[in-house]
Amino acid sequence: MDLPVMPPVKPMLAKSVATIPPGMHYEAKWDGFRAIVFRDGSDIEVGSRTGKPLTRYFPELVGALRERVPRRCVLDGEIVIARNGRLDFDALTERIHPADSRVRMLAERTPASFVAFDLLALDDESLMEAPLTDRRALLDRALAASTPPVHLAPATTDLQVAERWFEQYEGAGLDGIVAKPLTLRYLPDQRAMFKIKHERTADVVVAGYRFHKSGPVVGSLLLGLYDDHGRLQHVGVSAAFPMKRRAELVEELEPLRMDDVTGHPWAAWSDESAHESARLPGAPSRWSGTKDLSWVPLRPERVVEVAYDHMENGQRFRHTARFRRWRPDRTPESCTYAQLEEPVRYDLAEILSQPGPPAPLPGHTLHPNGPPSTHDRK
Questions:
Q1: 336-348 tens-digit pLDDT
Q2: Cβ contacts of residue 200 below 8 Å, gap of 6+?
Q3: What positions does the domain ATP-dependent DNA ligase family profile occupy (predicted)?
Q4: CB atoms near residue 97 (< 10 Å)
Q5: What mean pLDDT, rounded, does the chain reach?
Q6: In this structure, are 175 and 273 located in the same domain?
Q7: I need a surface site. Which of 170, 208, 230, 301 has the fewest CB within 10 A?
Q8: How confident is residue 273, by pLDDT bands cut at 50, 70 and 90?
Q9: Least confident piece of the model among 69-73, 215-219, 258-262, 277-281
């Protein structure tokens, strides 16, 4: 490759804020794999948030990108998989697999899409120092004729529209809203944007904990909810505690500690086949690798209120839940899925409908699929 912006590039990040700030550029917050796409002629490389390549895991996107994006460009966006009109993050994680045959099988069964929302380079020009408004105008032109599975992320500068998106898009599995200052240049690995996510609370059962990597203090609390059949399902963890509080939790939970897992609702956690019919802690995962997934069982008698943003497939917390307070007034049996708020369904196709092409930007010539430039050696 010979591009004005070369891999690896770590993407620009966002910091959490409570409300949508006025006077900015707004987009949906996609729930997928952040990806930087580099194209130089027939050469395509897809970099992850950490800079490591994702290319081999999404072979169907490589071909699609060759057909649908400018011959020499660097794009920032998100890889997503949709099922039944919603984003499906679990299906996305299945693609990170060492076996090429399985990756290609899943590429046909659950094909991925790429949603572009920024342009870092075009032809021979780096756009890293250009303001967001210029980068977005060029991106709109570059992808005006693109078709699925390559999409141009919807965007607006209207705060009221952004607020409506915030309420509606969750029903399609999206995370919230991202707000970007209009004059923002591209700042790799810096939290220069703003993200606004939904926050809800739930009362959950604490049924165990894992030790912290630093020693015999609590690393994370294991959380559960009862399903319609009265089974306690593992729904996630709460893990953000000051070190002093981690030590206090060990003493606080000691009276509930079980000598072994026998008789615990999650006693079968070490049996891989048991994970097929129930949500248990310590499920085998390509993400955990050799990480120690053992945990300390507790009698499921204490209830805690946690804050969360949204549920993955209605079964588990998509991200780490945030500890709010103990709830001694609640019984464990009352902590069921029924308490969770369900967002109104919204069709993902409505979000990904293509916007019309903007007016040309003076001083720039785009070659989405036209003749190769002088630097296109492939």
A1: 998 887 777 888 8
A2: 307, 308, 309, 310, 340, 341
A3: 105-227
A4: 15
A5: 87
A6: no
A7: 230
A8: low
A9: 277-281
User: What single-letter DSSP state applies at residue 53?
Assistant: B
Has residue 236 been placed in a domain? yes
H or E stretch including 252?
helix 243-253
**Based on the domain organization, do 220 and 172 belong to the same domain?**
no
**Domain, as residue range, for 284:** 200-330
197 is catalytic: no
10, 15, 29, 291: which is the annotated catalytic residue? 29
Cβ-based neighbour number of residue 219 at 10 Å: 17
134 with 279, same domain? Answer: no
Number of domains in the chain: 2
**Which helix (H) or strand (E) covers residue 135, if one does?**
helix 132-142
- Rounded to an integer, the average pLDDT of 248-268 is 91
> Within this chain, do residues 145 and 181 fall inside the same structural domain, yes or no?
yes
Q: What is the mean pLDDT of residues 170-181?
A: 91
Q: Is 131:184 a contact under the CB 8 Å cutoff? A: yes
User: Does residue 360 fall inside a structural domain?
Assistant: no
Retrieve residue 241's tokens.
Answer: 């505690």
pLDDT at 137 over 90: yes
Residue 265 domain-assigned?
Answer: yes
Please tell me whether residues 189 and 247 are part of one structural domain: no
Same domain for 325 and 181: no
Using a 10 angstrom Cβ sphere, with 0-12 exposed, 13-18 middle and 19 or more buried, the burial of residue 153 is buried
Helix (H, G, I), strand (E, B) or coil at 59: helix
49-55: average pLDDT: 91
Separation in Å, CA 254 to CA 163, 212, 226, 264, 333: 45, 16, 23, 16, 21
